[in-house]
Amino acid sequence: MSAARRFSSKTFAALSVRNFRLFFVGQLISVSGTWMQSVAQGWLVLQLTNSSVDLGFAIALQYLPILLFGTYGGLVADRHEKRRILYFTQSSAGLLALTLGLLMTTHHVTVDTVFVLATLLGFVNLFDVPARQAFVQEMVGRDLIANAVSLNSALMNSGRVIGPSVAAGLIALVGTAACFYTNAASYVAVIFALALMRRGELLPMQTVRRQPGQLRLGLKYVRETPQLRNVIIAVAVVGTFAFNFTVTLPLLAHVTFHQKSATQYGLLMGAMGVGAVAGGLLSAHRSRPTPKLLALLAVSFGVSMTLVAFAPTILWAEIFLVPTGACSIAFLSTANSMLQLNSGQQMRGRVMSLYTIAFLGTTPFGAPLIGVLIGATNPRIGILLGAILTLFTGLWLVLVLRQSNQPSMALQSA
Description:
The chain is 81% helix and 0% strand. With 414 residues, it is an all-alpha fold. It is globular and about 50 Å long.
């Protein structure tokens, strides 16, 4: 077997599973639509208000439900069939996108309606994200989970390449509402993929019966398990201060580089997406998540963000966003895999809900904070703050690794 074939076979191993292959294709279409809506919504808020604070607030509202009720979403995933939850959440997200498109077409859209719909989407994601993440192992099994998580991360960021590019063209040629309609239609692909799955080939995880104190038990489980606790702390810091690109990048294009159309913003997002796809594929090929690797990726992510913050031109910003995207998604894929491999089946949903809170639920703090900081200074400062704190997080992980004297993480039985 040639080296290229061996690389391909190892990198795309999880795609040999029919159910995961269906899920992968459906998600690729849907995620592209989601990123189209993200670009269009950010640009719409700037057009309506011309305010970095309002832009940060709109994004924060989308993740506020996860922050407030995220562990409950994970508990629901532990109690119920994952695929059934996904039918409901994906249909609901499609209806919300359709509603925003109709409001724009009928000229009834205001910044308040954007805020309301963003909040409702947050409640949908409250149940969707932990169920979707836990469902991956049901499709591929334990042996392929790290590979599948990395491929799924590469998939999510393939949408970041496709979606913003298409969105920029649609906004220029047709109008912003077209992005919302396209996103609404894209959810049909996921629902169709779920319907085509062979139920007998799924590997359902054990569900838990309703009992008092299950949320507290999940928190205690993570708090008393250093392999889980340290990862979630690292993701929380990076998620709060670094993963605010839907706030920082449109402002970098609009304020720093004086771009008045959505095209350059789309190219910035696309450049980061190209790097993210590469990072996801490399993680899928390696498929051996360790604390040492997580620390290295955090440091690399911080360095690449620093380069973006000091980019002299928008072209250099696009170039530096490629390694930024690669390091960011490799960091998240490694963290996600470590948590899934080191948590028990009956705790998986609650553990992944805490990961979701750490990554997405911190946005209600991070996005407005970065928006206010940028409003008082400039977009470069907002990006640089995230870079510095990400670097410190990587160095903290190195220190924790040395103190624990554990060069790699032992896998617990699930």
